[in-house]
Amino acid sequence: MTVPNDERERALDPRAAASETPEAEGGEGQKGQNGRNGQEGQQEEERRTSELEALQKALAEAEARAAEHKDLYLRALAEVENIRKRAARDLEQAHKFAVERFATDLIAVKDSLEMGLVSSGSIESLREGTEATLKLLSKAFENAGLTEIDPRGEPFNPQLHEAMAVQPSTEHAPNTVVQIIQKGYQLNGRVVRPARVIVSKES
How far is CA 196 from the centre of its chain? Predict the structure, then answer.
């Protein structure tokens, strides 16, 4: 068998053989590099997919919490509105029936006065009936928080008293209430009507 001259020359020439070897090795190295790059790209894609799924899960959880908080807010808002309506209704009832107890006590006073009018007793019995009626009325006032202002002998107080006149007096210190023309009244500490009085001055 005859070997061609050019092949025989390459086989005998070491430089030609050396020049062919790196090309073959370079091809194998390029294939390995491409394989590594492909694996890294796949890993990066998987990482991004995992991150996206985690974000989507976190978003879904946040939306669920937001919906729950909105529901709680709406429930609380409705409860506050119900409380406001109940309070308004109770206040209206309180205003409407605030004098109910006082009215009940006054009915007893009226009953006593009517019985006095139809009675045919003596002057003394009529007086006793009037006194009993007055006690009923005073009790009704007390139950309602209505108290008398009876300042006889006390220093004049413009917050509670109304001076109708002044008169000289040697028995009382100046600016003392010496006579009550009309009693005053307070409702739970608030002056409803001041006592109308006469006040002393130096003689």
Answer: 45
